[in-house]
Specification:
single chain, alpha+beta, Beta Polymerase, domain 2, 5-stranded mixed β-sheet, 5 strands
Length: 181
């Protein structure tokens, strides 16, 4: 397992997302509604692990097997939901920039989590500074313990989601998912 490294925002992250999007979209556009840049690298000014997160959004769970098959043609290996319902993960093919690719049904709690946190942070610069400082502190404190790193972020993430109006039952799911991922 690689050590946890959090770096200052890199203005090249949106370009990396666009390059990955250009590679993925032609293969899944017949089954996907969109590909969203999510996670910390999608928020200008936010310190992050230098790994771009992408969520390919499909209309429903019915399209997930089709997306899995189509993405396999590009060398992506389906890894399952990794304990988080509504989010299918993939192993990145060799030779590409570091990224995490997920396929999420529209309206899934996992997708709602990604989009709500991203959108809140994009609109609240003070929260970006607070979250970035927390992530750097946790990476220094737990450089080889991803579970404790993630656990240390959970309360802040749940607070953001609460401010975004996520229902209490969804918050419980998100909190469990953040602790499991």
């Amino acid at each position: 397992m690689r050590p946890i490294i959090v770096v200052d925002y890199d203005p090249n992250w949106p370009t990396i997302f666009q390059q990955l999007h250009a590679r993925l979209w032609p293969v899944i556009r017949d089954v996907a509604l969109a590909i969203e840049h999510v996670g910390s690298t999608s928020v200008p000014g936010l310190a992050a692990k230098p790994i771009v997160d992408l969520s390919a959004i499909v209309p429903s769970e019915r399209e997930i097997p089709i997306a899995i098959e189509q993405l396999s043609a590009l060398g992506y290996v389906h890894r399952g939901n990794l304990g988080i319902a509504g989010r299918e993960a993939f192993k990145t093919p060799d030779g590409l920039p570091d990224h995490h690719l997920y396929v999420c049904p529209q309206g899934s709690p996992a997708l709602a989590n990604h989009l709500a946190v991203r959108d809140y942070l994009r609109a609240h610069p003070q929260a970006v500074r607070e979250y970035g400082n927390l992530k750097k502190q946790l990476a220094r404190q737990f450089p080889n313990d991803i579970d404790r790193y993630i656990d240390g972020k959970t309360d802040l993430i749940v607070d953001i989601l609460r401010k975004q109006g996520m229902a209490l039952e969804q918050l419980a799911i998100v909190e469990r998912a953040n602790r499991m991922s």
